[in-house]
# Entry
Amino acid sequence: MTSDDFGSARLSPRDDLKLSPVDLLRRLRSRGAGDPVTHVERVPARAGVPAPWPPWAPTELRAAFARRGVVAPWQHQAEAATLAYEGGHVVVATGTASGKSLAYQLPAIATLLSDPRATVLYLAPTKALAADQLRAVAELELEGVRPACYDGDTPRAEREWIRRHSRFVLTNPDMLHHGILPGHAQWSGFLRRLAYVVVDECHTYRGVFGSHVAHVLRRLRRQCARFGAAPVFVLASATSGDPATAAGRLTGLPVTAVTEDASPRGGVTFALWEPPLLPPESGSSSPVPPQATGDHDDLHQVRRSALRETADLLADTVAEGVRTLAFVRSRKGAEVVAANARRALDDAVPGLGDRVAAYRGGYLREERRELERALLHGDLLGLASTNALELGVDLVGLDAVLICGYPGTRASLWQQAGRAGRSGQEALAVLVARDDPLDTYLVHHPEAIFGAPVEATVLDPANPYVLAPQLACAAVEAPLTPADLTLFGDGAKEAVDELVAAGALRQRPTGWYWRHRERPEVDLRGQGGAPVCVVESATGRLLGTVDGGSSHFLLHPGAVYLHQGISYVVDDLDLVDGCALVHAEEPDWSTHARDVTDLSVVSVRSYVDAGPVGMFLGEVDVTSQVVSYQRRRIATGEVIDTRPLDLPTRELRTVAVWFTLSPQSLTSAGVQTPDVPGALHAAEHAAIGLLPLMATCDRWDIGGLSTALHPDTEAPTVFVYDGHPGGAGFAERAYGTASAWLRATRDAIAECGCETGCPSCVQSPKCGNGNNPLSKPDAIRVLDVVLANLPA
Ligand SMILES: [Zn+2]
Ligand SMILES: [Zn+2]
# Structure
């Protein structure tokens, strides 16, 4: 047993398994016609590099870890722990099950033991993770640490005890924002003595949410400073590009990164798998209602679906007696994969299907442990799961992991693949590509997966739509001073001036004061306006919320809305009250909203003049209106009708990246004038699809617009913008990596095996124009012109 076992259910090696991953893969790929495997990477086994306990680690703490089976730390744990213990801010960014928790537990608890007054604050993105960590710390059974969770579920009666007596408080950024910071007076004793702030899973703080959390942490630092404390930040991140910069942006502090993973790892044979193109006539016979899964769009299916392919692979591995975990993006998708695999197994050997189950988030802890137990004992051989596992059950050491569709980030990909293999035993991982430009690119460009990490965790604390409300919250907690403007960073002065002009703050000689009686209402996770509630008319039951930005698309009258796999139809969308009334109904069509978008350039922040090509970053105003929706048969994709909608226009001021080309350069490249709109449109779709390669966003975070002549640029132009007010850092990152981003876009289109464009290359599931016009060959020409001129 090693130190990375903390809290994980580690499957024991199986002597009965004789099939090597290479042989298993050979069997899987020889099933159909043609070879779906585009690449096989052998990720070698790695021996762990243990380090001695740091000399400062108290004996009783070493003994406590030893009781939990940790005889010595790994090199990276010891290195990060010592950096933190010596007062440096540190981020440890290593793989799944590499024991990141020990890296912060060691310095934090050592300090609690040596200084009886010190306190520690631990932040997790979810309550479940905080609860797991609480258990791990409590199981060390150390006198005087008194760890406790403090979140929305904590009974009132216990809260005061925790504030006064706990020295290791585990919470989440929302509670820090809504509860602890506004109540700082009651927390003064705790904050005054705060030695460490632990930010776990810090790569999840990205985009607008991440920008909010960045300011919550600055508010925390400010309150600590008022009480004379300057805590050390220890952050834990999944593997990502440039973790030191991301952690620095998140905390506003200089942070050292520890990235060399010294924990042992079993060897993994990692295959990239591209489902075959289907013959054209069978193109629409999808067995899975695409809309119902969220994994797929209703465009003509050109490739065999990743869900079907994954279900077949799961059935095949289980039939070989291989313990397999299949990761599927949506809950419904996981159920479909499990059901199909069960059916295939039962057809082969009646009863064998019982060895496969579906797992979804929301299970009780006991149910999760039961599933773990069944897998441990081999009663269960196959499990299809959403990524709930990432933050719920901790299960490592499987014989095979199937990943149905690129999970969006390399961090998630490795987190999922990391469930396979254990010390001393080889395992298999398979990434099954969906028909999506990014997936297609990745299975043909293994270097983007196995080479140096490219994508970074992106956030933008200077976003004025985040900064102003956060400064308002800070002002309520204590009047703002000029020194605070430095703390909150770029744009803080402008935001304060605007709050003064709006009458929210008043300037006095001693600082800026909040003028209102009530606190400002700021939701860290709210994006693009107040969320809209989805209510079942008959029962009044609240099904969930949809963020304001997507509500017109998803909840217009007549929309088919899916919630946890159940289908509802929207009767009414009340924009004033922010609520949609729905009833349960399962029609045999899906609905697809269309919008018209207009965009104007407000200002240019930066640009590159590259002869016939211009590349720009700046602010834009986007006006959009959802004007109609189509109803389409689920089984065939056939359009039943298009119905008009009467919804107001919406305005979004945000950040965009755009490029222009001279008409002459397009003509010389062979793009005929009538084909220019289709060429730009196709390039825009693919560029949006590939941006997640550069920054951790998904295509729903970004929008685009292309036109053969834009009034502000007076040229053929492609815009890609952040879909959140004020921007979230994605367009900025795209601008910063423009040539790499557009090179990948060009290659993804050129390498797709289709003839005229498909969902794997230039079609987009969220196109407002029904994917029309699109010209695949001309899109390649457009991007060639851009790349030929743009400096690398
Ligand atoms: Zn294609
Ligand atoms: Zn489009």
User: Anything to note?
Assistant: The first helix runs from residue 21 to 29. DSSP finds 27 helices and 29 strands in the chain.
